[in-house]
Amino acid sequence: MALAVQKLNSGINVINKDFSTRKLNKNQEIVQYLNDSTLRIWYNDQNEDYETHWHNAIEIIMPVEGWYDVTISEETFHVNPGEILFIPSGSLHSLHAPETGARFVFLFDLHFLEKLNGFTSISTILGKPIVINKEDYLPVYDDIYDLFIQMRTEYFSDSDFADIVIYSRLLELFSLIGKYRISEMKLSSTRIYKQKEYIDKFNEVLEYIDEHYMENLCLESIAYKAGFSKFHFSRLFKQYTNFTFNEYLTHRRIKAASDLLARPDLSITEVSLAVGFASISTFNRIFRQVNKCTPSEYRRKHDPLHRL
């Protein structure tokens, strides 16, 4: 563990030349990317706390000296050197630093990756906080840590191709985590080939939900389509996606609604109906629970003229 931390911390200039003050719009942080990039890596040795906020980027925190406390949706994570915490995009979180210490903070906007085949199953894993440590991820821990070292090194090298290299390492990282999580799932008490069959089925289920989330989907019909009983399907779906079926369906609908709210030609009622909510009041309530603002507030925040 100490060697891994030493490798991550070696050869880095502790003063970020691209440092800038944080910009908040109410409790939304406007991430300051550089040169039209969609990623940011910080070396943070400040003892400053950050109040509750959210942003569209996924945030990954890696302490290298001292601990770091992160509260995500009222759950607190005490992160130590050698551990890696993934904070889902859009989630409310606050940060508490010790008097002395240092950590790397990675910020990635993943929207342009969403069209990639197979990314749906990865996005379900990233939809909730993840803590990578040696105990839980022993077979792949060193490889994961090395990928972060490579991303950090590339970012601070000022290479013209840094973004391409970093995102290629990030995709490799997601693939590594996804395959490991699947290998650890007890999808069946039968043989290994059955697990592969189940994984293929659940990938098809996720693709079906992505194409039909605006329809009146129910657990029973999807379980029947997949060839499982409702109770067996519920258990496997939770293992595979880290969501219950209803949680994932809501997650997918709200994500689609967030995209549609960028269209000024659609009313909020039209957006609600387009993504599968039968009631505008239900849509408003759930949207506020997920995004911590109303659809109207979200639309204003993401309007280009409003940002300008």
TrEMBL record:
<dbReference type="Pfam" id="PF12833">
    <property type="entry name" value="HTH_18"/>
</dbReference>
<feature type="domain" description="HTH araC/xylS-type">
    <location>
        <begin position="203"/>
        <end position="301"/>
    </location>
</feature>
<dbReference type="InterPro" id="IPR011051">
    <property type="entry name" value="RmlC_Cupin_sf"/>
</dbReference>
<protein>
    <submittedName>
        <fullName>AraC-type DNA-binding protein</fullName>
    </submittedName>
</protein>
<dbReference type="GO" id="GO:0003700">
    <property type="term" value="F:DNA-binding transcription factor activity"/>
</dbReference>
<dbReference type="InterPro" id="IPR003313">
    <property type="entry name" value="AraC-bd"/>
</dbReference>
<keyword id="KW-0804">Transcription</keyword>
<dbReference type="InterPro" id="IPR020449">
    <property type="entry name" value="Tscrpt_reg_AraC-type_HTH"/>
</dbReference>
<keyword id="KW-0238">DNA-binding</keyword>
<dbReference type="InterPro" id="IPR009057">
    <property type="entry name" value="Homeodomain-like_sf"/>
</dbReference>
<keyword id="KW-0805">Transcription regulation</keyword>
<dbReference type="InterPro" id="IPR018060">
    <property type="entry name" value="HTH_AraC"/>
</dbReference>
<dbReference type="InterPro" id="IPR018062">
    <property type="entry name" value="HTH_AraC-typ_CS"/>
</dbReference>
<dbReference type="Pfam" id="PF02311">
    <property type="entry name" value="AraC_binding"/>
</dbReference>
<dbReference type="GO" id="GO:0043565">
    <property type="term" value="F:sequence-specific DNA binding"/>
</dbReference>
<dbReference type="InterPro" id="IPR014710">
    <property type="entry name" value="RmlC-like_jellyroll"/>
</dbReference>
